[in-house]
């Protein structure tokens, strides 16, 4: 079936079976790499995107059910001029990541957190990201990056 | 012609000079911790340890002496470094780039790195064992230095200035002091004319041609003070693409007209496929082909979700004959098995006092998994004559060879190209996924087939780190110091990497004409495998270490970050701690007084000091404990000491690690932030293994099939990790990707003991395990 999604501020007509999870539509139909497949069952957060600013695990929610939502992916965080988002800059500044596979999901979860809380405490950051898994052990750098971004966005 | 001659003569001159410098440097390197340093050389070469000097080219240069294999200098001023080592998220390519830029004397920005493409890159074997720096880095360093020396001699001939008076600035060669150098050469217009005061660029000298020259060995390396990049925290080259969503992971690769494949796996080891509804699934929407070859069952569809649904349907329709009988108690099973016994260390004490006491303890490590966040993936295309596979394999060369043999192709008909994957930490499903993609691609010529494993398959099908049993025994003197040390370990293999054998590929074993898995073999020094770090670094006078190598493998096993070192260091350093407590001596002091390796001592002391070990125990609250663990990885690699502080809840016995302090010495450090990142990650991962992880099965099937049945450490459980690096400029690179694994496990068990008096000798340290110990011990304190 064909339906229209609002992705990164643009309407996108996509053709997919109606039960196709958003993740596959983003990756395969729209060529957006940010959201990653990690588990397909909502356990790891690698596929996290924003739906009306709220974190959404795109791996198991059918895309066709999201036509009324504003979807934001990692790619949508960048400014129109291509400038990196404060979170992306902060992740680079802290060299937060090893393999980097979990990082897009981390950045999106962090973006959602900063959307509701401009200056989260370290404990709040850890709690908000607790269900986003990282196997490389980049956790502390990720927390520092989010703190740095919060600071820069607040000033 | 005369220019040729002149060049050769000059070059020989340069080499003579270089060689003498090389010797001098080798002599410098020999100073300080003679034992340790010699070990370092062995670890580096793994083949006799002759670094430098002709006939014994250093690192991976020995088997790839052609300089063109490593470096290409384009006429357009682009410099390309080609390496067989690959990026696994450990920052290898960043560090290799730093080394190359320094030794070649070019800006880092000028450098492109091509890595892990079997068609163009030097065969550096596998990217494993923390050897990307010791093997790969050493090779790149010497290759780049040789190319620089060659180019300098060419420039010398052209500029008519002796090579010793030339300097290089980002590939532009000019006479020392001649400030115009940069201007003259920047245009790349040759600059060959002039009256000897001009400048010339590498690219104009080479003119886009091949260098056509083999490495000679013994060339001078950049002096420490002249380096721009080595030793600096240069940012990772791969990270920008990863935080913006560019196509950098193999999972992101979408060639034109690609399609999606999925494979349906047997529900238990060795199950044979009785039947599946191939015809029915072939009629599902989007399905292009159902592929069956013996027990190998896969499906290809136009869209990914169609492939996922078709694979689910295929799986539900499949009937399997299952035969697996997995040992319910892997430890009892291990020690009961027929085993190859290898005494890997035997030092007789030769008389002296008899021990006043003998102590003994047995330690256990369960099967544990790599558990990559991104399931394994590969993209393969078959054009009817040759196959190309994009893969995140750690062993592109050997895996390409195994795939070629699986498909009955000549070796040169399979090209593997490395792309980033999710962190693997050893041999996970990467190679199997590459083989899956190859089999499916061959069934659909002309289309690129992308295969990504499901989460469930990644958990259940990957080869695990082997369960192990370690039995330590010590005869001690009146002070509690060790006189006689004996240590036995039981393990299945830690290496079933492809190694060119299709029988080591999961699908290779499932075909109608299956390839048999090669029998595993016990490993050898200096790297060892199950017995990695089984030999103590302490100066115990009498030592006997025996490996009981079990060749059966009821659970699929292979290389898991640090191999046996994790379990052996856990056992060894737990036991040393037990001896210290028995002797009523501070565990740090106890270690130091039996250590004769100065570099080890420095690392232990540095960790203890940074941690604030000396603070009196009385000052700490009840339920708090500190622990230390130390090892020199492989006994020839990096030195690493880990101190942890834990709080053990008196009721639930849940362990919370509140902070970690690590000291590490990895020889000369190429990238301090990269090293710190590896160590931080290693500590956190090892804590996850040691607090939570054990693969579970029901006697037939693996039941650890997702993140809820195999949980790992999460943000709220991760402690702050502080890393102190002891840099040794001028020393060989040691590499440290796996150095923290064992020390962390031991530090944890030791800290838990101090916190609650329970000595956990079996991993992981779950509340249930500690609860059982408390019950055994009766009320404590
Ligand atoms: S892939 Fe969606 S939560 Fe894991
Ligand atoms: S950086 Fe590798 S999984 Fe997080």
UniProtKB/TrEMBL annotation, chain A:
Q: Which residues form the 2Fe-2S ferredoxin-type domain?
A: 1-77
Q: Which UniProt keywords apply?
A: 2Fe-2S, Iron, Iron-sulfur, Metal-binding, Oxidoreductase
Q: Which PROSITE patterns match?
A: 2FE2S_FER_1, 2FE2S_FER_2
Q: Which Pfam family, just one, is annotated for this protein?
A: Fer2_2
An example of a GO molecular function for this protein is:
2 iron, 2 sulfur cluster binding
**Which CDD domains does this chain map to?**
fer2
| Stored Gene3D superfamilies | 3.10.20.30, [2Fe-2S]-binding domain
Q: Is the Transmembrane helix keyword given for this protein?
A: no
Q: What is this protein called?
A: Isoquinoline 1-oxidoreductase alpha subunit
Q: Which organism is it from?
A: Chondromyces apiculatus DSM 436
Tell me the lineage of the source organism.
Bacteria, Pseudomonadati, Myxococcota, Polyangia, Polyangiales
Automatic annotation (TrEMBL), chain B:
In alphabetical order, the GO MF annotations are: oxidoreductase activity
Q: Where is this region: Disordered?
A: 29-59
Task: Give the stretches traversing the membrane.
Answer: none
Cited InterPro entries: Ald_Oxase/Xan_DH_a/b (IPR000674), AldOxase/xan_DH_MoCoBD1 (IPR008274), AldOxase/xan_DH_MoCoBD2 (IPR046867), AldOxase/xan_DH_Mopterin-bd_sf (IPR037165), N-heterocyclic_Hydroxylase (IPR052516), OxRdtase_Mopterin-bd_su_IorB (IPR012368)
Tell me, what's a Pfam family for it? Answer: MoCoBD_2
Instruction: Output compositional bias ranges, type Gly residues.
Output: 48-58
- SUPFAM superfamilies (alphabetical): Molybdenum cofactor-binding domain (SSF56003)
Name all Aldehyde oxidase/xanthine dehydrogenase a/b hammerhead domain ranges.
Answer: 244-324
Full protein name: Isoquinoline 1-oxidoreductase beta subunit
Species name: Chondromyces apiculatus DSM 436
């Amino acid at each position: 079936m064909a339906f229209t999604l609002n992705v990164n501020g643009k309407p996108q007509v996509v053709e997919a079976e109606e039960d196709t999870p958003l993740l596959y539509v983003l990756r395969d139909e729209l060529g957006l790499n940010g959201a990653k497949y990690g588990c397909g069952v909502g356990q790891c957060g690698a596929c996290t995107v924003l739906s009306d600013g709220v974190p959404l695990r795109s791996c198991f929610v059918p895309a066709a059910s999201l036509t009324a939502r504003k979807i934001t992916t990692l790619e949508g965080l960048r400014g129109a001029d291509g400038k990196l988002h404060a979170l992306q800059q902060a992740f680079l500044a802290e060299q937060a990541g090893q393999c980097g596979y979990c990082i897009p999901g981390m950045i999106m979860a962090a973006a959602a957190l900063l959307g509701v809380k401009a200056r989260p405490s370290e404990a709040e950051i850890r709690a908000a990201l607790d269900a986003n898994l990282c196997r490389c052990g980049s956790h502390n750098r990720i927390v520092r990056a989010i703190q740095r971004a919060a600071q820069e966005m607040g000033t | 012609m005369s220019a040729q001659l002149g060049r050769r003569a000059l070059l020989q001159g340069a080499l003579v000079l270089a060689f003498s410098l090389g010797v001098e440097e080798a002599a410098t390197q020999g100073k300080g911790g003679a034992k340790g340093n010699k070990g370092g050389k062995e670890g580096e070469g793994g083949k006799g340890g002759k670094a430098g000097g002709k006939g014994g080219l250093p690192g991976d240069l020995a088997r790839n002496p052609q300089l063109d294999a490593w470096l290409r200098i384009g006429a357009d001023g682009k410099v390309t470094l080609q390496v067989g080592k690959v990026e696994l998220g450990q920052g290898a390519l960043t560090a290799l780039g730093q080394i190359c830029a320094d030794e070649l004397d070019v800006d880092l920005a000028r450098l492109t790195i091509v890595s892990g493409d079997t068609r163009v890159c030097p065969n550096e074997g596998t990217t494993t064992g923390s050897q990307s720096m010791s093997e790969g880095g050493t090779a790149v360093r010497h290759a780049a230095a040789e190319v620089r020396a060659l180019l300098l001699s060419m420039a010398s001939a052209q500029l008519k200035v002796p090579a010793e008076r030339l300097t290089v600035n980002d590939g532009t060669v000019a006479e020392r002091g001649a400030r115009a150098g940069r201007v003259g050469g920047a245009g790349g217009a040759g600059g060959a004319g002039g009256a000897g005061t001009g400048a010339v660029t590498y690219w104009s000298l080479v003119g886009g041609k091949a260098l056509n020259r083999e490495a000679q060995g013994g060339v001078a390396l950049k002096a420490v003070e002249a380096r721009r990049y080595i030793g600096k925290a240069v940012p990772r080259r791969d990270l920008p693409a990863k935080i913006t969503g560019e196509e950098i992971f193999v999972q992101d690769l979408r060639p034109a007209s690609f399609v999606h494949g999925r494979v349906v796996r047997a529900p238990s080891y060795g199950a044979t496929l009785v039947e599946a509804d191939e015809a029915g699934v072939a009629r599902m929407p989007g399905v292009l082909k159902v592929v069956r070859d013996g027990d190998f069952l896969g499906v290809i569809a136009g869209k990914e979700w169609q492939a996922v649904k078709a694979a689910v349907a295929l799986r539900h329709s499949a009937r399997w004959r299952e035969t697996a009988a997995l040992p319910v108690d892997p430890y009892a099973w291990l020690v009961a098995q027929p085993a190859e016994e290898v005494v890997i260390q035997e030092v007789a004490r030769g008389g002296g006092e008899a021990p006043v006491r003998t102590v003994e303890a047995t330690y256990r490590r369960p099967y544990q998994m790599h558990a990559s966040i991104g399931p394994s993936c590969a993209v393969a295309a078959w054009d009817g004559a040759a196959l190309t596979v994009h893969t995140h394999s750690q062993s592109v060369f050997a895996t390409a060879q195994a795939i070629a043999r699986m498909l009955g192709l000549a070796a040169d008909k399979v090209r593997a190209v490395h792309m980033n994957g999710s962190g693997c930490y050893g041999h996970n499903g990467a190679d199997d996924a590459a083989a899956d993609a190859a089999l499916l691609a061959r069934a659909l010529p002309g289309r690129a087939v992308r295969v990504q494993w499901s989460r469930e398959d990644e958990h259940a099908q990957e080869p695990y780190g082997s369960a192990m049993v370690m039995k330590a025994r010590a005869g001690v003197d009146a002070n509690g110091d060790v006189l006689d040390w004996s240590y036995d370990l039981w393990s299945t293999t830690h290496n079933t990497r492809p190694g060119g054998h299709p029988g080591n590929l999961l699908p290779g074993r499932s075909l109608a004409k299956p390839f048999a898995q090669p029998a595993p073999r016990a490993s050898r020094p200096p790297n060892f495998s199950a017995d990695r770090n089984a030999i103590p670094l302490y100066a115990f006078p009498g030592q006997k270490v025996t490996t009981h190598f079990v060749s059966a493998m009821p659970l699929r096993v292979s290389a898991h970050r640090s191999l046996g070192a994790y379990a052996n260091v856990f056992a060894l350093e737990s036991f040393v701690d037990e001896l210290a407590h028995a002797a009523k001596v501070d565990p740090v002091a106890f270690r130091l007084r039996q250590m004769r390796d100065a570099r080890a001592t420095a690392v232990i002391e540095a960790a203890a000091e940074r941690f604030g070990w000396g603070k009196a125990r009385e000052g700490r609250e009840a339920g708090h404990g500190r622990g230390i663990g130390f090892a020199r990885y492989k006994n020839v690699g990096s030195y690493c000491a880990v101190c942890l502080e834990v709080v053990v809840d008196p009721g639930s016995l849940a362990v919370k690690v509140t902070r970690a302090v690590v000291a590490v010495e990895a020889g000369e450090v190429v990238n301090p932030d990269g090293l710190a990142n590896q160590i931080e990650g290693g500590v956190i991962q090892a804590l996850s293994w040691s607090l939570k992880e054990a693969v579970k099965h029901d006697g037939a099937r693996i039941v650890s099939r997702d993140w809820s049945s195999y949980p790992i450490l999460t943000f709220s459980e991760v402690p702050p990790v502080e890393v102190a690096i002891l840099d040794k400029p001028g020393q060989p690179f040691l590499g440290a990707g796996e150095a923290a694994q064992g020390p962390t496990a031991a530090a944890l068990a030791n800290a838990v003991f101090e916190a609650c008096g329970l000595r956990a000798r079996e991993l992981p340290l779950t509340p249930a395990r500690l609860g059982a110990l408390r019950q055994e011990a009766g009320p404590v304190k």
